[in-house]
Structure prediction request, 474 residues.
Amino acid sequence: MKMMRTLIIGAGAGGKFVIEQLQTTKNSRYQPIVILDDASYKMDLDLYGIPVKGNLADISKTIKNEDIKHVILAIPTLDTMTQSKIIDELRNYDVTLFVLPSVFSTRESQKIAIPELDYKDLIQDRPEFQLDYHEIKRKINQKTVLITGAGGSIGSEIAHQIFNCQPEKIILLGHGEGSIYQIDSELQQEKMIKSYDVEIVPVIADIRDELRMTQVFKQHKPHIVYHAAAHKHVPLMENNIYEAVKNNIIGTYNVIQASKQNAAEEFVMVSTDKAVNPRNIMGASKRLAEKLTLENDMTSRTVCNVVRFGNVLGSRGSVFPKLWAQIHQGVALTITNPEMKRYFMTIPEASKLVISASMLKRKNAIFVLDMGEQLGLSGMVDQLIELSGKNKRDISIKYVGVRPGEKMEEELFNQEELSSKVTDKMYEGNYYTSVTELDSIKHLMKTYTVIEPESLRSLLLTLANTHNALQETM
Prediction:
């Protein structure tokens, strides 16, 4: 086995520990050659026979002169800015890097610096979906826009995008006061900077509370409603089936009814590709929420439609922030299955798609962004490692297997939802929920609390995967 010539950065306790471990570990791949440290009094000393030959400004020269193939940053107390500069400098060379974790620091709390990731870099093979802000501004001028789940990843981005189009009023509705306070503060600050004449109203409310929804909508009379509030985490919903029904189905129904009763012009439900032929509770609950949204209600003036997403990169609960942190923390990456494929989009793309779809005024429509081909999880992980500046051979990967209810690949439309391209970047499908389907869903909403978990799971999946025979003949 060929040894990798290794540069140690840091001649303190961390450096001593690293060199001792490398020299005493049987069959170690790494051969310590030289040490760099900024403490002048350590110059020309040696640790276990390894010389200190310079300071941190000599990194590039040392890599070239000593034919270095591996670097170990062994200063756990190093400030994050200096650590980031070192990592950026090392990207110019064909070397691998280990960072000694903060557990070896004498400080009680020292967090590992994790650089910010631009998720656009993971889908750079296709252009990001863009909004026509002038057109949107023209259409929502003098209107009130209400966003449920306004403190979440998608809801807060919709709020920012809508704010930039200058409606008369934005209602930020959410159950968590911390997240609503955060988005309200951000928009208030933006309002001061841009001098926009937009009224911003934070509202703490639970979509599961029918009376509260009625009160809020009656008070504010929104013209456009973006329904982003939902439980979206697949494994969590597998174990919390009653909450999935209560929030994703009953909560959605409450917001739809409040929208119709107060003559909202548009109701847009934020959905997921996991609602297509669902195998899990989260997907099934979202599919039933879609069916409630797509009711063929001829008496209401409210235009109701659905926007489906693929996996949203960087959203709360998504896998890539966790993997990005694991790479920089030096722990094994936990991956379900390398052959798994998904459609991916960024948070701004997802939010822009919701807003763009609401401007089309299509009733009973399902809108999906043209996201190209599904991307393999293995390839996405390779990109993530490359963006981190590390070498894949130094990254440990642990395959944990497909979780209950997960598919190897996702779909964008059900078979009966005939789809066509309505814009250069958007597809539209249609579905009309039958009276029989509506009756079954409403019966479920009334009785779910007395149904045993396994029976409820079976009923949810059956209702979600029941196709409207009338739709198929259209």
Remarks:
- The longest helix spans residues 241-261.
- The chain has 16 helices and 21 strands.
